[in-house]
Amino acid sequence: MADATTTAAPARRAHPAHSALVGLTTLGVLLQGLWAGLFLGGTDDPGTWYDVHKHGAEATVALAALATVAAFVWLRHRTPVVVATALLFVLLVVEMLLGLADSSAAVAVHVPLAMLIMGLAVWLPVQARRG
Ligand code: HEM
């Protein structure tokens, strides 16, 4: 009789480096909301939090870029995971450019896009574990 462990389909697992990088990117997006709250919320020194938000954006985009490299290196056979990780990176670049654009219309897209990015960032690790 065949052993269940030899006949079952191979488990499709997330890669720890990809999971860690996606997790740190998600934390970066969450913190961006905090820094925005601090510079919008009338603190004594909104300029500092504005700068923190700007540099936080650079760090978050860099983490998403590394997560995309990790997806291509370790999960290249998992097309939905690679595409979703690359999409997370692209949307964060768009988000950063919208933040830097000096226009109220851009801000009106910037905030809801951040929420869409957070949704993708939460969905991505679930998808990576599911296969
Ligand atoms: C809920 C989350 C977020 C909120 C509420 C938010 C809000 C804002 C607001 C109100 C501004 C000022 C825009 C202006 O003055 O014209 C801004 C600027 C900016 N945001 Fe965000 N943001 C969020 C997330 C993000 C994320 C995830 C990124 C990057 C990946 C980002 C990158 C930037 C950048 C680069 C600027 C311009 C900073 C500068 O000019 O020095 N933001 N954000």
What does this 3D model show about the protein?
This protein has 131 residues and is mostly helical. It has one domain. The chain has five helices and no strands. Helix 2 packs antiparallel against helix 5, helix 3 runs antiparallel to helix 4 and helix 4 packs antiparallel against helix 5. The longest helix has 29 residues. The two termini are 28 Å apart. The chain binds protoporphyrin IX containing FE. Protoporphyrin IX containing FE binds next to helix 2, helix 3, helix 4 and helix 5.
Question: How would you sum up this structure in a few lines?
Answer:
With 131 residues, the protein is mostly helical. Helix content is 82%, strand content 0%. Bound molecules: protoporphyrin IX containing FE (HEM).
Present as ligands are: protoporphyrin IX containing FE
Q: What value does the average pLDDT take?
A: 91
Report the oligomer: single chain
Number of helices: 5
**Intertermini distance:** 28 Å
Number of domain modules: 1
Tell the overall outline: elongated
Q: Which residues sit in consecutive blocks of at least 5 with pLDDT less than 50?
A: none
Largest sheet: none
As a percent range, the share of helical residues equals: over 70%
Rg from C-alpha positions? 18 Å
Q: Sketch the topology as an H/E string, one letter per element.
A: HHHHH
Q: What's the total count of β strands?
A: 0
Strand content: under 5%
What class do helices, strands and sheet pairing give? mainly alpha
